[in-house]
């Protein structure tokens, strides 16, 4: 099965997926990388890795979020991808997109959902004083950071942690967990029933 990655920033998760695929640990082809940011390092990483299609799709060229998402859907459909992997894609996808790829869009979030949703999860977890946080990989539905949970990994918070030091350890966990989930999905290993995701 072919898949796509959508990323807005550094793209370290994209890199982890590229590296895993190179080692034969992801049994599917990364056909397309799309970013909503022209200067996303993720685009550079994708080009360097020889991903067949690497696109910057500028949100400014579209009158509404739905129009932008429509464009993404038509690009992804043309490439016939069976999975859309969000890797630090910092846009909320509209129902237009979710309906087109129901249970085919996954996201990685830097906290143990349902705690600390949103764009500042690591900072919020630290400020709240949690002792354990982590990583969640989940299906994307119409609500933000809400869809059925596929996998989680715990990361201990150390007394002297800053957003930077904690983020570093969270990223390490993401880079192990996310490629594994991508591979399992592509091999048809997940069975979903409502919010419950089981391994077949
Ligand atoms: C990751 O830590 C991911 O969990 C987070 O963005 C980072 C992207 O890093 N996503 C969210 O916060 C989504 N709410 P990367 O560009 O190096 O892969």
Q: Ions, cofactors, ligands: which are bound? A: glycinamide ribonucleotide
How helix-rich are the residues, as a percent range? Answer: 25-40%
The number of distinct helices, counting runs of at least 4 residues, comes to 6
The rounded Rg comes to 16 Å
Structural class: alpha/beta
- Going across the biggest sheet, name each strand in turn: 3-2-1-4-5-6-7
- Assembly state: single chain
Overall outline: globular
Average pLDDT across residues?
98
N-to-C span: 18 Å
Portion in beta strands: 15-25%
Task: Count the E strands.
Answer: 9
Helix-strand sequence: EHEHEHEHEHEEHEE
Note poorly predicted spans.
Answer: none
Largest sheet: 7 strands, mixed
Topology:
Layout: E1 2-6, H1 12-22, E2 29-35, H2 41-49, E3 53-56, H3 65-78, E4 83-86, H4 95-100, E5 105-109, H5 121-128, E6 132-139, E7 149-156, H6 163-186, E8 190-193, E9 196-199
Parallel strand pairs: 1-2, 1-4, 2-3, 4-5
Antiparallel strand pairs: 5-6, 6-7, 8-9
Helix pairs in contact: 1-2, 1-6
The structure holds glycinamide ribonucleotide (GAR).
Glycinamide ribonucleotide binds next to helix 1, strand 5 and helix 6.
